[in-house]
Amino acid sequence: MPLLQITNLHATADGKEILKGIDLTVNVGEVHAIMGPNGSGKSTLAQVLAGHPAYEVTEGSVTYEGKDLLEMQPEERAQAGLFLAFQYPVEIPGVSNSYFLRSAYNEIRKSRGLPEVDPMEFLDLMEQRLKLVDMDPEMLGRSVNTGFSGGEKKRNEILQMAVLEPRLAILDETDSGLDIDALRIVAEGVNHLRRPDNATIVVTHYQRLLNHIIPDYVHVLSAGRFVRSGGKELALELEERGYDWLEKPREAVA
Amino acid sequence: MTVAYLDEFQRVVGNGAGPAWLRNVRHDAIERFSTLGFPTQKNEDWHFTSVAPIADATFRSLAAESARHRTPDVTPHLFGHTEWPRLVFLNGRLSPELSRLTGLSRGMRVLPLTAAWQEMPELVQSYLAQIASFDDRSFAALNTALMADGAVVHIARDAAPEMPIHLLFLSDSHATDGVAQMRNLVVAERGSKATVVESYASIGAPRYFNNVVTEMRVEDGATVNHLRVQRESPAAFHVSTTEVSQGRDSHFLSFSFATGAALSRTNIYTTLDGAGCGATLNGLYMVDGQQHVDHQTRIEHAKPSCFSRELYKGILDGESHGVFNGKVYVQPEAQKTDGKQTNANLLLSNRARIDTKPQLEIFADDVKCTHGATVGRPDETALFYMKSRGISRELARRLITYAFAADVLETIELVPVREQLEAFTLARFAPAAA
To answer: Using DSSP, how many helices (H) and how many strands (E) does chain B show?
Structure first.
């Protein structure tokens, strides 16, 4: 059974169709890259998978671990192991990072029938994970994303991912706005979290990140449809030639 | 009932009621009160708040006996700092047993009002009833006529006491159906810096009426940090006016935290009466059920090159009703005024209501002033973000509500008070995760 199976997915925002029939199969152990020009629907796909209320699925299906993902609330999806690293992480002034993460961690544990961890235990876990993304422990005391630089916000997303250990991680343009050092740290963090029983979808505009996170499959999205799928070499081709040569959809291979 | 207060006035004046000059002031004040009566909603300043529950009720005057020989545990009301010097008033009367002035820093004098007008007559006469006007204000007039107890705080020139002074006004079942007229005076001399905590709390849920006036003079170059914490009984009525006069280069910082009382009205007025001074007025009100909470602030820019900053936030649940009226006046002389005022409200229920009225009146031409008010519901983007991390909708909503409040609580400089109010707010909105 695939981890994620998307079939003929159509979605609209404000009545406008953005996704026009997406098919994608993701198995455990795989890394998929979704590339495409601005406005092609990459972020919409990521948000629809996470359950953003602004999008309406009008046709098609998505199963996750054999269950109907579209029937699940966003928090249920997260509790089931789905994680979206946001393109624009949201600032929540007044809630400390550590409090926020501990709440999330415990809500997920509760949903799985596991006992909650106390703040001291959690701190130990955080200390290990912070190292993974080279973050200052001082960041834990600060309000979630508030006053963070662009790079800090993205690293904070990966920190959350490292703590919550998702089964399916979707990185929505995590590379945008990162300098090369930050990019490397983020990519190393993601690679470190790869396991044979989880999977990653990397949504990106640029090939750059894929030098560090090597995908098994690359899919090109254009105007709400996959127009090309292939191996990691497709990303390099896109880097050379841009997106313009891929106007006509071809059958997606996944 | 107005007439009950007039009777009370006869008793008060018959019993001495302070020095001769004060008795004259009291006479003027009761005259004003009997002319004005209680305000009605036709009065623009009271448009959204009906004081009928106060005006129509008859409250007995709380006698000194209501505080005597009783020592309830005040520890929970001391912000974890029992060593802070404090005056404790129980049911409107000083409780010497509960008060503690040892440890008062050099340069700070604190006396009960009734002692102060004997021991510091010149100071009291110079300022008492000189700052808080009662000409067109019923409650201030009533308080001035009947003031019975309170605190006088004097900070000497260039003194900077390390510890704050805490004025705690506690009410218990002996306050039931009673009215207390409390009056405080704070004078910070040139270059001094002090923190005054004024808090209102109850033991149990008695019904009573606290009518308070606090006057402050902040002299040139002085800083006063004033923290008002209103957690009155849910059945209580609380009307208060804090009126401040500021000298050149002075700074007045005020925080008003209001969660208590069935009906409360908090006025905070300051006049920036010297060049280069500043006022920071922040506050948080959180109400539920049938509570009514009203804040009126007035910042009077009278001199050039002053700044004012104001951030008030409100969280309204149940069928509660909030009112915010923030007035900023910039007089013709007050060029280079820099003013910013914001009132933000979060409605957690469809039946909760807020009337917000920021008011900016500018009579100078070279000023920078902004104001704004918002009324909203919990932010969907933030809700989604939290839910995408596995946090349930209900907890996400609570955390966002807490975050909304914490944003303004963060501005409280006195750490123990800030931390306690944060914990209090967190427990209110996110008990499961606290």
So the answer is: 9, 20
Q: Which amino acid appears at position B158 of this protein?
A: D
Interface contact A74-B388, CB threshold 8 A: yes
**Please, which pLDDT band fits residue B209 given cuts at 50, 70 and 90?**
very high
If you ran DSSP here, which 8-state letter would residue B370 be given? E
Q: Please state the three-class secondary structure of B158-210 as a single string.
A: CCCCCCCEEEEEEECHHHCCEEEEEEEEEEECCCCEEEEEEEEEECCCCCEEE
Q: Is the pTM of this model over 0.90?
A: no
Chain B CB contacts of A50 under 8 Å are 388
Kindly determine whether residue A164 and residue B393, on different chains, have CB atoms separated by under 8 Å. no
**Domains of chain A from N-terminus onward:** 4-241 (3.40.50.300)
* Element at A23 (helix H, strand E): strand A16-26
C-alpha B310 chain-centroid distance: 15
**Nearest chain A Cα to B426, which residue?**
A95
Residue B430 clears pLDDT 80, i.e. is over it? no
Model confidence band, residue B434 (pLDDT cutoffs 50, 70, 90): very low
The secondary structure of B69-110 as a DSSP string is: T-----GGGTTT-TTS-EEEEETTEE-TTT-B-TTPPTTEEE
Query: What percentage of residues in chain B have a pLDDT greater than 70?
Result: 97
B81: helix, coil or strand? coil
Which member of A94, A105, A107 has the closest CB to residue B402? A94
B411 at A interface, C-beta within 8 A: no
Nearest in space to B152 (alpha carbons), one of B191, B200, B196: B196
Residue A93 CA to residue B337 CA, distance in Å, equals: 29
- In tens, the pLDDT along A170-215 reads 999 998 888 888 899 889 989 999 999 999 999 998 888 999 999 9
